[in-house]
User: Fold this.
Amino acid sequence: MSLLVVGTVAFDTVHTPFGTAERILGGAATYASLSASYFGVQSRIVSVVGGDFPQKHIDLLKDRNVDLEGLQIIQNEKSFFWEGKYHNDMNTRDTLVTEVNALEKFEATVPDSYKESEYLLLGNLHPGIQDSVLEQMNKRPKLVVMDTMNFWMDIALDELLATIKKVDVLSINDEEARQLSGEYSLVKAAKTILAMGPKFLIIKKGEHGALLFNDEDVFFAPALPLEDVFDPTGAGDTFAGGFLGYISKTDDISFENMKRAVIYGSAMASFTVEKFGTDKLIGLSDEEVSERLQRFLNLTRFDIQL
Amino acid sequence: MSLLVVGTVAFDTVHTPFGTAERILGGAATYASLSASYFGVQSRIVSVVGGDFPQKHIDLLKDRNVDLEGLQIIQNEKSFFWEGKYHNDMNTRDTLVTEVNALEKFEATVPDSYKESEYLLLGNLHPGIQDSVLEQMNKRPKLVVMDTMNFWMDIALDELLATIKKVDVLSINDEEARQLSGEYSLVKAAKTILAMGPKFLIIKKGEHGALLFNDEDVFFAPALPLEDVFDPTGAGDTFAGGFLGYISKTDDISFENMKRAVIYGSAMASFTVEKFGTDKLIGLSDEEVSERLQRFLNLTRFDIQL
Assistant:
């Protein structure tokens, strides 16, 4: 099945207690499409970069079977750039620099060849852009997953709420869920947010795992306990790409299958955090992915018959 | 099978954002023995209270089939008293008052009738007292579970390490695991702590669940997402009591059974936090416990075949 991913393709400079990586490949669409590629799913990217974006990054994405027809390259602009520094706990970070650059006038034109995509990931961007992508589709995708962040709650709440109303799955972190709902309890937050329109809500809790809610049920996937979290950048986007990669591959949007997709997304995210940027997410073998899944099974399986 | 529980029986005054409860029944041995009672297990308590401890609390424990032969009552002393205030996030708290009272000269005498108990919970007390209880046993229990806290790491580390070396399962929270090991990563912390002697380590992460480690494996049990966490006091002790209650009932100390015990302990703890003190932990029906277990199954079950 076809997966359309709209989101940033960018440069990141990342400072962690383990060292610094300068101007490495980053961006939500990058992580999500690389992650989805492990499910045999070709992601169709809608994004923009500047003339400074190197051919080697283009080649890397193409090697992972990512469709770049919708990647605009604006020669006289620079690519989106983010620089951040993680604290010692690796759970919190400060943004040092954000250069919007080519993204400032980004209009997110969906190529005709993408307009019947069956699955759609609206990566974290201005909600107006996310909405515009959805509106350009020739038919409503089978499942629309939307990521966002507190920044848009602060500066574009009305547009954000209008877009949230149209999507099937909203994927945000715990602090964002609290801000959006005004509720501290994540159970109450989920009820409030589901009443805003989406049928499903994913609350990402970083090293504490992820919750999947619908009106009636809740499912929890832990994050894999790791010896070292080296660089958390992109973990959430990798999760979303793995989630929709698995959904696209299986073409099944039941809650039972979404539970599996949450586990697959968590497994993919556990790779991303083990090295800088996309380093670990490139060139994983099928055996490595299976072995990681097995670790999730071992971590969570217990035998209680009621 | 017989379960011996050593730990505090106390009065607590608890301040939460929802209100205050004054001088209510508390203490590690109280929560643990009440929790274990739901597995048809009679807990034998070794503890001490003062002459101010009311008959109604004695009756309450006896009604739940708790053996109080080892509960010393020192008439001219007062019972241990703790007063604390939870912050709005309910995850952190300040201790306002600690009155050691009757506990100050507590010698933890194990009655003869307790000395062949097959399971032993060393609740959070001075490690010298915990050690003394273990030494008084006529035979080594099948499984010894030890709880402790950062306070003893600060003031009695050598004795703590000597006691830890003798137990089978150490049960501490994430911050305590980090302090004890000097490692931030809980995976690394677990390796360091298991090298100190215990065969199993439980790291409690409060609302983020609990991890069970042995040399080779790790198992994770989430905490149940709740609409409101009303009063977290006693959740860890309830967990430990449920864990050992289930182990005692099934008389099986395999890792597979410990995984089930962690789930049962988590289920019992999810009741405790829903009301002040022991209010919710008294008079639960079998149906309520089964229904809670079913919620854990729904929360964690997924079907992936590798």
Summary: Residues 255-272 of chain B form the longest helix (18 residues). Residues 3-300 of chain B form a domain with the UDP-N-acetylmuramoyl-L-alanine:D-glutamate ligase fold (CATH 3.40.1190.20). Chain B touches chain A at residues 88-89, 184-188, 205, 208-209, 211, 217-222, 225-229, 256, 259-260, 262-263, 290, 293-294, 296-304, 306 (CB under 8 Å). The longest strand of chain B covers residues 19-26.
